[in-house]
Structure formats: C-alpha cells, structure tokens
Specification:
By secondary structure, the protein is α+β, with helices and mostly antiparallel strands. The protein has a single domain, classed as q2cbj1_9rhob like domain (Jelly Rolls), CATH 2.60.120.620. The chain has 2 helices and 15 strands. The protein has helices spanning about 20-35, 65-80, and strands spanning about 5-10, 10-20, 40, 45, 50, 55, 80-85, 95-100, 110, 120-125, 135, 145, 150-155, 160-165, 175-180. Strands 1, 2, 7, 8, 10, 13 and 15 form a 7-stranded antiparallel β-sheet that branches. The longest helix is centred in the first third of the chain and has 15 residues, at about 20-35. It is globular, with a radius of gyration of 16 Å.
Length: about 200
C-alpha cells in the first residue's frame, strides 16, 4: 500500500503509515469504544493499572475496518499468508485485539507477542503530545523509538520486543493492538472463531 514507510530493526521490517480514510475509521472506532467501555473485560494489571482492555467484536465492529486491511497489507509486505481473528481462539478468554488506555504517568513494559502470532499491529486512536512513544528493543542495539500519531498503523513481527514510554500528557493515549496468525491455523477450526483469510 502506498505511503507506508519501511523501517528495519534487529534484522526485521517494521511498517508505518495511514490506511485510506483513516480519519473516518478512527472516528467510528472511538465512538464505539466510548459507548462500550462499561463492558470492558481485562487480562492483567501492571503497575496498578489494567494493561489490556477487551471488548467483544459485536461492541466494536469497526475493528474489522482496521484489522482487515491491516491483514491484507501485512500479507503483501511480509509475503506470508495470515489470518485475522475477532473472537477468542480456542482455550483463550479474550479476543486477539485489545485497547490500551494510558493515563498520565502510565507506561507499558517491554514484551513481545510471539507465543502464537506472526505479525502484530497497533493503531492509534488518540495521541496527545508527549503521550508516550512506542519503542523496540534488542540486545546490543539502540532502541528504535516511534512517536504516536492518531490514525497511524504500525505493523511488526510479533517476536520483536517492544514497550511504550511514559505518558506525560494530561490526556489519555488510546490505541488498539492486534495479532495476526499464520494460515492455516493448526490448532482450531477457523470458521468457529470468526476468522478472515486472504
């Protein structure tokens, strides 16, 4: 897709850019997110805050308008068949997309998503100035730091370790993260879990 910048870190490619009509996609998803907040479920706390906030796809159907083209883009950029899921895979409680709402002073520690997924993504929904940069970390290398920008999509290999720096803004930084999986999925039937394949 035109307009996506390619960055290299630790021998792997990271892509950053805007989807077509990103302003409308962002507005729709933010509206659905705010309407559904009372129905959040959570996975774990870090530093006293819920790290990931989950909603079922029925509450935030516009997630598909971001994850679907992101999946198509990732297939083209990385050259591997990938599947997008919107419901919890077998044996898991939460769907493979979630929201991060970081208030002033909050950050996200270094981690990766390599357990099951191949490509991961983040889509920024609200990014006040100084609300915390995404960074990638690898031993022996200087961190690659990317400033958040509303409407920007970032795709990266799930094995890359990454985190988010402290939010120094007075408002919340809001993003939606997601994982994409290798196709075919070896451990469960895709039609059961709302999968989309290329």
């Amino acid at each position: 897709m035109e307009g996506f910048e390619k960055l290299s870190f630790a021998g792997r490619d990271i892509f950053r850019g805007h989807l077509p009509d990103h302003a409308q996609r962002t507005s729709r998803l933010l509206h659905e997110l705010h309407a559904g907040m009372k129905d959040f479920s959570f996975s774990h706390k870090i530093g006293g805050r819920w790290e990931n906030s989950y909603l079922p796809i029925e509450k935030v159907p516009s997630v598909r308008d971001i994850v679907r083209p992101a999946r198509d883009l990732a297939v083209n950029l990385y050259g591997d068949p990938l599947v997008a899921l919107y419901d919890p895979p077998s044996g898991l409680e939460h769907p493979p997309f979630w929201f991060n709402l970081a208030a002033t002073g909050e950050s996200t520690g270094v981690h990766n998503h390599a357990r099951d997924s191949v490509v991961s993504g983040v889509y920024y929904l609200n990014t006040p100035i100084d609300s915390g940069e995404l960074f990638f970390r690898s031993e022996g290398a200087e961190d690659l730091t990317l400033a958040p920008e509303t409407g920007v999509l970032i795709l990266f290999p799930s094995v890359l370790r990454h985190g988010v720096r402290r939010n120094y803004a007075s408002g919340k930084r809001i993003s939606m993260a997601f994982n994409l999986f290798a196709f075919p999925l070896p451990i469960f039937r895709m039609e059961t879990f709302g999968a989309e394949v290329p």
